[in-house]
Amino acid sequence: GEHQLTLESAALQRLSDFARQQKITLNTLLQGAWGLLLQRYTGQSCVAFGATIAGRSAPLPGIEQQLGLFINTLPIIAAPQAGHSVTQWLNDLQALNLSLREFEHVPLYDIQGWAGQQGALFDSLLVFENFPVAEALKQGAPAGLTFGELHNHEITSYPLTLGIEVGATLRLNFSFDRTLFSAAQISQLGASLLHVLEQFVAQPQQSLGAISLLDPIAQAKVLAGSRPPAPLIDSPLLAHQRFEQQAARTPDALAVIVGDERLTYAQLNAQANQLAHRLRAQGVAPGQRVGLAVRRNAQMIISLMAILKSGAGYVPLDPDYPAERLAYMIEDSGMDLLVAQPGLLTDVALPQGLPRLALEANADGYSTENPENLASAEDLAYLIYTSGSTGRPKGVCLAHAALREFCVIAADYSQLTAQDRVLQFATFSFDGFVEQCYPPLCVGAALVMRGDELWDTDTLYRQIIEQGVTL
């Protein structure tokens, strides 16, 4: 296949002026953009492409008038560094081209032998032609002889060839193997090459890492294609309100299964309401952070839903985490209250003055009615910490709006229904827990939780069968 681009004289003049300012050739400028483009498209730090050499630079009298094919092809090894400036990269490439003159008559097969390479050294070729053949034929034609329009057609054995013709305009001729490239891909490649050249000329001191392959319009198209349409939020209700709505709709449906424990939607909602009212009585309010240390049982789901209902955001504290990590999370999060089951966090150094609430205390005296919602969509829903594999764990804050949107999206792509039973196995300090917990409870599905013990494959298989897990 073939694809052509033409830069008019004004654009060519800008490139030529820039090359002179940088003390490089126009050929080097095009090579610099092409090498960077190949590096970005292939994802390799070091790339190679072929470049044709005129072969007529030898100091032989009359060599320019001699007939014959003197051109040769040499490999250009390019490793653009993201931290280097455009100017630095082009100067390095110009120096490389000058050094290659020593080898301009060396056959390519000799270079392959030196490199210990049996196959091709490169799979793209750049052919730069700055001799105005058409103009020379026109001026040198004898009387009565005229030449028609000259068309240059490059045919090579390489999958991709870029032919560059410099005259009154700059023509870029792409020849490509249709079994490897589509016309649309080559068209985008050409557009990217022009955009890179524009940025080279506009800001020669910028780093190569700041060079973009796509212009703003192309970037917008890529982003639009990669982003799914915004989910349809059918109501402004937050995640805990959607759960309340579901509990009113299917009060007797199973909500949580943990071992021998069973909670219906009505029971889960009532117990979460009691704890939420108790938290409100303790002064918990929107914007506050409530730490939660609890074992893997129904109380975990009750407590999480209660904190959301209270308006505060929760900070999950897996009691199986190392004491030092838990202490850091408690200190770093700046929590306003720590809620924990008895016997947990006994070896963790807690900040002085941190209010605590034990989950063993009786909450029967508190209302089972839904508390008035005080949280806004922008208020904190939960603060979760990263693994800390690159250093200290980092806290990430998620708002109620994000949790609500995620519940809608997850329920949609998983096609959740009230008939589903969803396996909940992730620690609640891991973001995978959010996907396994809240979307199912917003649509009336049942959570099948593992307890504190880890399941082997046989136990997992048996539980999936026995509990009728569907997801």
UniProtKB/TrEMBL annotation:
UniProt-recorded name of the protein: Non-ribosomal peptide synthetase
Cellular component annotations (GO), alphabetically ordered: cytoplasm
Domain AMP-dependent synthetase/ligase: 243-470
PANTHER family xref list: FATTY ACID SYNTHASE (PTHR45527:SF1), NONRIBOSOMAL PEPTIDE SYNTHETASE (PTHR45527)
Domain of life: Bacteria
One BP annotation, GO: secondary metabolite biosynthetic process
GO molecular function: catalytic activity; phosphopantetheine binding
Limits of the Condensation domain: 3-221
